[in-house]
Amino acid sequence: MTVERSGSVVCVTEEHCEMLRSAYPGVPADKFVAIPNGYDGAEWKELDKQIASETQSQSDKFVITYAGKLYINRSPMPVFRALRTLIDRGEIAPDRVRIDLIGWCENSEGKSVSDLITETGLEGCVNLVGLLKHGETLQRLAQSDLLLLLAESLTLQIPGKTFEYLKSGRPTLALTSDGAVANLIRKTCGGWAIDPTDDEGVIRVIRQCYRDWSDGKAPLSPDPKIVASYDRRFTTAKLGELLDNLT
Fold first, then answer.
1. What is the mean pLDDT of the segment spanning 74-88?
2. Domain that holds residue 8
3. Is the domain of 107 the same as that of 138?
């Protein structure tokens, strides 16, 4: 009844729109409109100059960063296992890599992350940063060499921080099933979408990024024109236009 009586149905991904169009074949397809989440362009404008000046020189460590909360089935273990394998194979020096976990990352799937670090022998490689101010977190993203996005089983929705990852200009390793997150990563050329169970795929991406970093090559960077379309000024304008049309 809600769908039939509404003037418009707004979703945050096109994948969700398509699901609803299939569920309601008798409803006009254009009633379902996708207006995505995004990032605060004004906030980034203030940070851009500072970030640029602080990322000119290469760090002595290859830094992988995760920002957020480890909840439900979010687990860093695929990356822990991949890094352990690459270290054991002699492809990555343990003193030249660091994983930063920013936010609520003390526990994962009912287990202590500290225990998981010990279990994989990565005590000197993983840094439980804890909570930071938002602006400092954004700086950390832009200073990283690879961003980790844990989006297991997210086929219709996209974590809001994904857009800040893309805005940072750094490549993203998204551990996710095929769907909305994977499609966004491909659309923006922002990195790699790998199934969390694909251990070799995770190893391949980390190996490639580490080698590029070690060789001084510029990292993969999302398409800035596509990323710019997710500035909230533009997504809010879409919502405003929709409301204008409805009234």
1. 97
2. 2-37+232-246
3. yes
**What gap in Å lies between CA 60 and CA 64, rounded to an integer?**
13
In this structure, the number of other CB atoms found within 10 A of the CB of residue 47 comes to: 17
Q: Which pLDDT does position 53 carry in this prediction?
A: 67
The span from the CA of 179 to the CA of 166, in Å, is 17
Q: Are residues 52 and 153 in the same domain?
A: yes
Tokens describing residue 7: 């003037």
- Crossing angle (nearest 10°) for helices 14-23 and 180-188: 140
* CATH number of the domain within which 148 lies: 3.40.50.2000
| In the predicted structure, residue 57 carries a pLDDT above the cut 70 | no
Positive/negative CA dihedral, 15, 39, 187, 229: positive
- This prediction's pTM: 0.94
Encoded tokens for 188: 């923006």
Q: What are phi and psi of 10, to 5 degrees?
A: -100, 130
For 88-109, the pLDDT digits (tens) are 999 999 999 999 999 999 999 9
Do the Cβ atoms of 233 and 35 come closer than 8 Å? no
CA atoms within 13 A on the CB side of 7: 6
Task: Looking at the structure, tell me whether residues 57 and 103 fall in a common domain.
Answer: yes
Q: How far apart are CA 202 and CA 175, in angstroms?
A: 8
3-state secondary structure of 66: strand
Pairing of the two strands 97-104 and 126-130: parallel
Task: Give the pLDDT band (50/70/90) at residue 83.
Answer: very high
